[in-house]
């Protein structure tokens, strides 16, 4: 049994941010995550570090929080934020009145917004629709959510924080009505681990009500599914937004060598049962194509969905539900933190840890806005320039990941899960979606004796199922051709069609 002060459940941006803040304030803690870091909404998001422009009209409080955090994250997270800048583009027929309201909203919140001509916008982003009427330039950025979580966790681990990934919390332990700990099941071995603590923080996003229920409490939430598509090209170097009331498919974000376009907003009940509908894929491509016409004939390599953990609302249009966050004191030793954005995760963590410090009667102030994220040089090991300079022993040709890099992650994390290698190196994230490199990575894990051949076959089957879920909605053209080749490799050469 492990004893600590604070138990954090959930390893998304919010949970990892709380772990970093607690570490910097010297509070012992343990974070438990059922998958890998960023397994929930964090890893399924657009990766837009909002300037706040998106919410300037509908949600000024969230807009101000986004802008302030945007300034902070650009400063402390230089290696996981790309300062792309963003454009809100007005297409023929888009309301001029909204343009005025938008500019007024930005001014009131303090977001720098510069109106530029269509000619200047086309100079900045040559792939833009030449028909655009004008654009408004804002300080949007692109942010890597996986790297963000790992960097936050690094600060925790450096200061003695205990971290368990692939451990699912199944029980909240109580004594005299107060939460005193948790039980979590190791997803690889099935073993149960017991952890005791004085305070439990429920940072499980869309799963927050399920965890609260284990403690006899409740978290009122509205769960809103959003879907995204990924292209195999970077069609823009700036974030592109549609200048209109927030709606489906109006944002395109560049990330490394690709672009993410979306999103949709559909209320759902079960965050574990997500299906990306073909109709959503059609909507996202056609809406993105209105801003960047190349979208209509560029290869889509994947579509996926995540769930926004929003505060309970009766609003019929999910786009209008507040992106603000809330800390709920269940008055039994457990706090839940829900709502918010990836962009505001640091602020959410700060407020959560302020509350914890007050309950411990301790006074050390928050420093997460001043101290740069630690380990950025080492953990940002996969920018393209760096990968191109080290082309020996390539395991993943699409993303230029080397054998040496894969071996380093296996040694460092002692992982027995190929997904953990993906999240840390980008292995399998390119056009073939792991078709050519996953069996190689599993082979390396075999060579290094971390898994047996039987385990790797089981893992490969699980991987292929998950992979197919993301590729299925984007199966046409080149992606379909490549998928057939990959299918022949796995079913024909590796005989994966045989039952276990
Ligand atoms: C499609 C989409 C696009 C978005 N785009 C953006 C964007 O561009 N910019 C932006 O700022 N925000 C964006 N958001 C919002 C943002 O992703 C979320 O607000 C944020 O990531 C929430 O982080 P979180 O840590 O609170 O929750 P999550 O990331 O969902 O983390 C919760 C974690 O809890 C874990 N967990 C659940 N149950 C258990 C259990 N029993 N035991 C242990 N662990 C458990 C989960 O595995 C998960 O990792 C987007 C959201 C969606 C869905």
Structure at a glance:
With 500 residues, the protein is of the alpha+beta class.
Overview of this protein structure:
The chain has 500 residues and is an alpha+beta fold. It has three domains: 2-41 and 146-220 and 323-360, FAD/NAD(P)-binding domain (3-Layer(bba) Sandwich); 77-139 and 224-309, D-Amino Acid Oxidase, Chain A, domain 2; 381-493, no CATH class. The chain is 35% helix and 23% strand. It is built from 15 helices and 24 strands. It has helices at residues 13-24, 60-76, 96-109, 118-124, 145-158, 208-214, 278-291, 345-360, 376-379, 384-388, 403-413, 418-425, 438-447, 453-471, 477-493, and strands spanning 2-3, 6-9, 29-32, 48-49, 81-82, 86-90, 114-117, 134-138, 141-143, 162-164, 167-175, 178-186, 192-196, 199-202, 221-231, 239-242, 251-255, 258-262, 266-267, 300-311, 325-329, 334-339, 394-396, 401-402. The strands form five sheets. Strands 6, 7, 8, 15, 16, 17, 18, 19 and 20 form a nine-stranded mixed beta sheet that branches. Strands 10-3-2-14-22-21 form a six-stranded mixed beta sheet, with helices on both faces. A hairpin with a 2-residue loop joins β11 (167-175) and β12. It starts with a strand and ends in a 7-residue tail after the last helix. Flavin-adenine dinucleotide (FAD) binds next to α1, β11, β15 and β20.
- Report the C-alpha radius of gyration, rounded: 22 Å
**Do you know the CATH architecture of the largest domain?**
3-Layer(bba) Sandwich
Shape: globular
What's the rounded overall pLDDT mean?
Answer: 92
Question: Biggest sheet, in brief?
Answer: 9 strands, mixed
What is the helix fraction of residues, given as a range? 25-40%
Class by alpha and beta content: alpha+beta
CATH topology description of the largest domain: FAD/NAD(P)-binding domain
N- and C-termini, Cα separation: 36 Å
Ligand names: flavin-adenine dinucleotide
Total domain modules: 3
| The level-1 CATH class of the largest domain | Alpha Beta
Q: List unreliable stretches of 5+ residues.
A: none
């Amino acid at each position: 049994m492990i004893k600590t002060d604070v138990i954090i459940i959930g390893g998304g941006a919010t949970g990892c941010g709380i772990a970093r803040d607690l570490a910097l304030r010297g509070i012992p803690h343990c974070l438990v995550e059922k998958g890998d870091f960023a397994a929930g909404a964090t890893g399924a998001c657009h990766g837009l570090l909002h300037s706040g422009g998106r919410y300037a009209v509908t949600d000024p409080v969230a807009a101000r929080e986004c802008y302030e955090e945007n300034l902070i994250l650009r400063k402390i997270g230089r290696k996981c934020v790309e300062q792309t800048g963003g454009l809100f583009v007005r297409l023929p027929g888009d309301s001029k009145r909204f343009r005025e309201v938008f500019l007024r909203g930005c001014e009131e919140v303090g977001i720098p917004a510069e109106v530029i001509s269509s000619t200047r916008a086309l100079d900045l982003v040559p792939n833009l629709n030449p028909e655009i009427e004008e654009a408004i330039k804002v300080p949007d950025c692109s942010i890597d959510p996986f790297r963000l979580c790992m960097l936050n966790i690094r600060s925790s681990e450096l200061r003695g924080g205990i971290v368990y990934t692939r451990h699912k919390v199944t029980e909240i332990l109580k004594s005299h009505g107060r939460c005193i700990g948790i039980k979590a099941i190791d997803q690889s071995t099935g073993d149960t681990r017991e952890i005791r603590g004085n305070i439990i923080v429920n940072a499980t996003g869309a799963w927050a009500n399920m965890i609260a229920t284990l403690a006899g409490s409740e978290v009122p939430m509205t769960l809103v599914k959003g879907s995204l598509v990924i292209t195999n090209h970077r069609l823009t170097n700036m974030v592109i937004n549609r200048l209109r009331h927030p709606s489906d498919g109006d944002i395109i974000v560049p990330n490394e060598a690709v672009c993410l376009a979306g999103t949709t907003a559909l209320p759902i009940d079960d965050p574990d049962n997500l299906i990306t509908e073909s109709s959503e894929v059609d909507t996202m491509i056609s809406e993105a194509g209105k801003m960047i016409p190349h979208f209509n004939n560029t290869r889509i390599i994947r579509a996926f969905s995540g769930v926004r953990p929003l505060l309970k609302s009766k609003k019929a249009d999910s786009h209008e539900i507040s992106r603000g966050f809330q800390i709920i004191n269940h008055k039994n030793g457990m706090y839940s933190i829900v709502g918010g954005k990836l962009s505001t995760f640091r602020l959410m963590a700060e407020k959560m840890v302020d509350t914890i410090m007050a309950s411990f009667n301790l006074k050390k102030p928050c420093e997460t806005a001043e101290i740069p994220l630690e380990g950025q040089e080492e953990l940002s090991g996969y920018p393209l320039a760096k990968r191109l300079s080290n082309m020996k022993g390539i395991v993943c040709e699409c993303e230029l990941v080397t054998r040496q890099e894969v071996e380093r992650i296996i040694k460092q994390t002692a992982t027995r899960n190929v997904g953990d290698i993906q999240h840390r190196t980008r292995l399998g994230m390119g056009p073939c979606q792991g078709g050519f490199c996953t069996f190689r990575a599993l082979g390396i894990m075999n060579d290094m004796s971390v898994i047996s051949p039987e385990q790797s076959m089981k893992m490969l089957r699980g991987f292929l199922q998950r992979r197919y879920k993301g590729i299925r909605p984007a199966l046409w053209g080149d992606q379909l051709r490549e998928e057939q080749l990959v299918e022949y490799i796995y079913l024909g050469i590796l005989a994966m069609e045989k039952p276990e």
